Amino acid sequence: MPDSAGGINGGYRVELFNQAVMNHKNITFVGTQPPNGPQTVAGQMFPRLHEGRGGFTISGISDSVTDKAMTMFHPNIVLLKIGTNDVNGNSDLGQAPTRLGTLIDRLIAEGPDALIVVSTIIPIASGANQNVQTYNAAIPNVVKTRAMAGKHVVLVDSYAEFVKDASYKTTLMIDTLHPNVAGYALLGRTWYGAIKDLLPGGP
After folding, report:
1. Pseudo-torsion of CA 31, 160, 122, 172, nearest 10°?
2. Is there a contact between 76 and 29 (Cβ–Cβ < 8 Å)?
3. Which tens digit of pLDDT belongs to each residue from 39-49?
4. Does pLDDT of 142 surpass 60?
5. Which domains does the chain have, with CATH numbers?
6. Residue 79 C-beta-side C-alpha neighbours within 13 Å
7. What is the biggest distance separating any 2 CA atoms in the chain, rounded to whole angstroms?
8. 115-119 and 44-45 strand pairing
9. SS3 labels along 175-187
10. Could you give the angle at the alpha carbon of 42 between the alpha carbons of 121 and 158, nearest 5°?
């Protein structure tokens, strides 16, 4: 399973893996990026490969990046959370949802049997958060349009999970853009909730 954020010491993948182990589900992560994360989680060897791309904008995820990851590993599930750098950099925000749709279409074309799980982006703890909300508000329709066309695409609302905590800026974030350990754990539980029914049972 490629993901879209390597994160600190395994990022959200640590809690996602932990949830799978605790619930007797099998999960692994794949990707072309250098191994990242602890050696073990919940007493199991942690799969440290990933496709996290720190600092990338939506358009920065090129054809060659997606093609290599999808054709090399043929993932069953792709976790996609992208757009923070577009919003934070004020990069043609009006067209950001269109760029997201193009990226999703590319992933679908390269992995037609894979489930693409598209997440809203988490808050930006600064004045740019209004732009986050505007971008996030467009994502459900981007996903719905493709789902109604029979594509394997679903939405997960990470933003909503973050803002349930009114103190998220201090409890869930390490700076204005990035989650802290607790924030990544929340993301891991959020991803798990979206895919748990699709994971095979383990020992």
Report:
1. -100
2. no
3. 999 999 999 99
4. yes
5. 8-197 (3.40.50.1110)
6. 31
7. 48
8. unpaired
9. CCCCECHHHHHHH
10. 10
